[in-house]
Amino acid sequence: MGSSEELEILRRKIDEVDRKILELLNERGSIAVKIRELKQENSFHIYDPVREREIEENLKKMNKGPLSTESIVSIFREIISGCRSLQHTLKVAYLGPEGSFSHQLAFKEFGSLAELIPLDSVEEVFEEVEKGKANYGVVPVENSVEGSIGTVLDMFLKSELRIYSESFERINHFLLSKTGNFGDIKVVASHPQALGQCRKWLSKHLKNVEIREMPSTAKAAQVASRDKKVAAIAGKIAASIYKLRIVEEHIEDNPLNTTRFFVIGKESARPTGDDKTSIVFSLKDEPGKLHKALLPFAEAGINLTKIESRPSKERPWEYVFFVDFEGHICSEEVKKVLSEVQKNSIFLKILGSYPKGKKERF
Ligand code: PRE
C-alpha cells in the first residue's frame, strides 16, 4: 500500500473517533442541561470551582498519554466552559487590558465561552460585580516576588464582595515579536516589573537593544504587533491576542515567580475540607492586643497562612490587619475562634472562605 493510501486510512479512523467524541460531548452537554434545571430549582451556584478542580485532578490521575496532561487539562477546560455556558453565560470582569496576566487567569478559570470583560482598574472590577454587571471578578492579590497588591486589599475594606476562589498563576514571561526573529529586535518593551524580572536574561541575550517601559505587558504586545523592530515581554495569552510569534519562552530570571489571584463575587463558596478564610480587623493601640487577637488561633491549632498590616486610611498611623488562615467559616471551631478575635478588635470583617488554590497548575 502506498503512503498516501495509508494516510487516507488513518484519516478515516480519525473521522470515526471524532464522530464518537462529538456524540459523547453532546451527551455531556445534555447532562449539564439537566444539572442546570436542578441548580435553578435549588438555587445552587452555576460556577462550582471545587467540582471543576475535582474533574481536573481526576483527569490528571487518569491520563495515560500520548496526549500530555497539560493538553488534556486545557481541552477539558474548554469542554467544561461549553457545558457551563449551556447553563448560563457567565460574565467575568478582570483587570485588563486584554492580554494581561489577569486575563490569562480568567481565561484558564472560565474558558472561552464566558464573557470576559477587561477593565482599567481593580476598583472598576469590584464595581462591575457589585452592580451585577458581571457575575464574578478576577483580581491579582499578591505576587511571590513583589508582595501584596495594596489597592486590592483596600477594596476589600470598602466592598461587601467575597472571595469565591483562589488561584496561583506562574508568571512566565515570553519574548514576543511580529516576525519571531531575534535579528529584527531593536527595542524590548514591557511593564517595568516585567523588565525587572527578566533583567539578567536581557543583559545576556539582548545587551544592545533599547529598553522601553510601558504601562502594561499587554500594551507592549500591542505596540510590538505594529512594529517588527519591537519585541514585547508579556504572557503567553498576549501572543494569540496580538498575533505575535514567540521568540523565546520563559525568560524570567526567577522561574518560581507566581501571582495569587482571587475570583470575587456575591456568593460564598461551599466548604471542601481544604479551605482558607481571609479576615481583616483593627485593634486598639494597646500593648499585647495583636498577641491577644491571634492567640485563639494558636490555641485551636489553626494555621495562619498570612498576616499583613495596612494603613487604615481613616486616621494616620492606624492600621488594619489582614489575616488568612486554614479552615472554613462554616466550622464551629473557626466560628469560636473568630468570636474571640472579635472581642479583642474594634472591627472584624470576614472577606470569605474559599477552596485553597493549588500552587502548581498548568
Ligand atoms: C460542570 C459545569 C459547571 C460547574 O462549574 C461544574 C461542573 C461540568 O461541565 O462538569 C457541570 C456542573 O454544572 C456541575 O457539576 O455542577
CATH superfamily of the largest domain, please? Periplasmic binding protein-like II
Low-confidence stretches: none
Structural class: alpha/beta
- Rounded to the nearest angstrom, the radius of gyration is 24 Å
Q: How helix-rich are the residues, as a percent range?
A: 40-55%
Give the H and E element order: HHHEHEHEEHEEEHHEHEHEEEHEEHE
Report the CATH architecture of the largest domain.
3-Layer(aba) Sandwich
CATH topology of the largest domain: D-Maltodextrin-Binding Protein, domain 2
Largest sheet: 6 strands, mixed
The whole-number mean of residue pLDDT values reads 93
Distance between the termini: 42 Å
Counted by DSSP, the helix tally is: 12
Shape: globular
How many domains make up the coordinates?
A: 4
Strand content: 25-35%
- Number of separate strands: 15
Short recap of the structure:
The chain is of the alpha/beta class.
